[in-house]
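Table 4 source record.
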Amino acid sequence: MPIHPIEYRYGTKEMKEIWTEENYLRKLLDVEVALSVVEAELGIIPKNAAETITAKAKTVSLDMVKNIEDEIGHDIMAVVLAISKKCGDFGEWVHFGATSNDIIDTARALQFKESIIVLEKHLKELLRVLIDLSYDNRKKVCSGRTHGQIAIPTTYGMRFGIWASEIDRHLDRMKELSKRLLVGKLSGAVGTMASLGADGIEVQKRLMDRLHLEPAEITNQVIQRDTYAEYLFWLANIATTLDKICIELRTLQRTEIGELRERFGNKQVGSSTMPHKRNPIKSEQVCGIARVVRSYVEPALLNNTLWDERDLTNSSCERIILPEASILADHIIRLTSKILSNLEFDERNIKNNLEILGGLNLSERIMIELAKRGVGRQEAHKIMRNIAMEVYSSGKEPINVIKNNETIKRYFKDEEIDRIMTQEDYIGMSVTIVENLVKRLEEKWF
């Protein structure tokens, strides 16, 4: 009976498959098989033993392993015994010179490798959506907001471009992280390679070459968990970017703002009691799940603080946080792509919000023009601030207060003020900024 929402509600099929018990067992078996092949190459175990282990490991089932584990209470030894039973006399060579975490940590690295392939694909899909939105909306002027208040104009191209740039950095971090994360070990009980003696370094190197991983430079019984924590933090960092995106989308869908909205299906229901509702439920789901992904950072950090050469406190924790964080982060990456791909803009509300202050949001522009014409910058700021305060207290039309100001009348004709207060003309270099960004990202990733 399904219990966890990952089982029936959240997650992509490809990421879930990576973290199934079956795939984890396949990875453990892959490591054990590769170990036997390498050891046979070096003459450490008989060649026939490696051939038998390679053939018989394929026939080991999850049920068989679980039944053995129920009897002996040790998961990796259950895998070892399952292979051994299939191999007859050659079974004595299974797991030769290895300790449990040689197999576990190397298998985890293989899972991380598969996960990063999926995450990279989905991050690039999201980046593609954001690049297209940035370019297509590079001239769509809208109200900028700081502190939740109307500021000078910006463009939707700038908004989407900022998010695209952030995803670009997450992809860069992934490449850097992979160098440290996709690492396996075969260094024994406390990291000294004592069980393999002089062959230890060569066995580990050949094993990792065979598995397309990097060999750990130094370990104790486990690969140090700062690398796992880095992976979890990377996922949390991605989740926070998605949270930021979807908070903004939810804000812009508020009834009072209404500049854009999630696409609403023809038969979709917003509320069980208020039929008029069009709630941003997908964006809210992203924000909610992002909180969960972020919460895994602390346990991941604590998993690095093990006693001496290791203890087992990280094990149970990792069985939970590694699959859940990977699956949930991947889920909200895909969901954010779908949300952004189906946005609906309300051009009327974008225009209304841009003009809601009657041009007062262009006070910076008038201040700059005053300074250029001889009024000191600080004095110009004071003039425009006083005008704003008068508008707020009197309810007068901003354009009238501005044009009737004695200092402004001395430096500007009315038609100049009208030109200066055109919202669409005060977006600076935003179009060029976005076009340069899009060009760079296209060349880098696509």
